[in-house]
Design a protein that fits this description.
The chain is built from two helices and three strands. With 87 residues, it is an alpha+beta fold.
Length: 87
């Protein structure tokens, strides 16, 4: 289980930190503030060992399939970090 989460330079998210996570988390807010992007970043983090995951997420979010999503990342690397609970 994750206890905190940090996203840097993913889609519209710049240095977003969720300092405390529990077993159940609810993210609310107005349209266009990044709730879906935060959820995608969590999804990417959990699938970090799956090399096709970034491609799959791109296909789900675009009307035009077949483009390489890595080309849209620009020069800055994505950074997604989390702390996991000790068991």
């Amino acid at each position: 289980m994750l206890t905190s989460f940090v996203v840097e330079r993913y889609r519209g998210l710049q240095n977003v930190e969720v300092p405390t996570l529990g077993q159940f988390n609810l993210f609310t807010g107005m349209n266009g503030i990044g709730k879906t992007s935060l959820g995608e970043a969590l999804w990417l983090f959990h699938g970090r060992d799956n090399p096709s995951l970034l491609w799959n997420i791109h296909i789900q979010r675009t009307e035009l399939g077949g483009h390489n999503p890595l080309l849209k990342l620009g020069g800055s690397p994505i950074s997604i970090k989390a702390k996991e609970a000790q068991t």
